[in-house]
Amino acid sequence: MKGYFNIRFKNIAPLFLVAMFFSCNNTLKEVQDLNTSTLAPMSIAENINTKYTDSGRLTSILVSPKMLNFTNREFPYYKFPNGIDLTLFDDEKNKNTVIADLAIVYSETDIIDLQGNVVLTTSTNDTLFTEQLFYDQKKEWLFTNYPVKFRTKDYVTNGNGFDSNKNVTNAQVLEVTGRIFIDE
């Protein structure tokens, strides 16, 4: 019986090795090709203070301690892992500001994703507080589905979501959960 088992094992072992060899595909090659250069950012910028102009008019100032450029990815983006302080100027030179703990700018979709302690303050001192806010640069539209607090000179509104044009002159709190009117 021992000889029969030994012969059978000798026949099965090569068959098993051949099956393993042919079951391997280029997955190992793909894993080997994933090196740090494809995972790492294309470039890193520190202590950013960028001023944008349009037709000679200052339109925005972006300040951030660090920017990671991932435009070498299939879905390119820029990441500001240590937060941003963004000042926006409208045509009448009114100033709106946005601060956030993290920002991601998606190049292909022109969407800016602001995350963590997001505070948007308008030139009229209206203030939005939320944990995440998106800005669609093509549509010039701000939006979120996260809980928000929106403070104006007349009231404070809490809700679950926010929609507005870029100047926050057409702001709407969605799914209002409470409103406090302020008497002066």
Question: What is the gist of this entry?
Answer:
This protein has 184 residues and is α+β, with helices and mostly antiparallel strands.
Structure description:
The protein is globular and about 90 Å long. Strand 6 and strand 7 form a beta hairpin. The mean pLDDT is 86. It has a six-stranded antiparallel β-barrel. The protein is 18% helix and 53% strand. The protein has one domain (41-181): Lipopolysaccharide (LPS) transport protein A like domain (lipopolysaccharide transport protein A fold). The protein has helices at 2-23, 27-33, 36-39, and strands spanning 43-54, 57-69, 77-80, 84-89, 95-100, 102-106, 111-121, 127-136, 141-151, 155-165, 172-173, 176-181. It is α+β, with helices and mostly antiparallel strands.
**What is the highest CATH level, the class?**
Mainly Beta
Mean model confidence by pLDDT: 86
Note the gap between the termini: 100 Å
CATH topology: lipopolysaccharide transport protein A fold
What is the CATH H-level superfamily? Lipopolysaccharide (LPS) transport protein A like domain
| Domain module tally | 1
How helix-rich are the residues, as a percent range? Answer: 10-25%
Beta-strand share of residues: over 45%
Specify Rg, calculated over alpha carbons. Answer: 27 Å
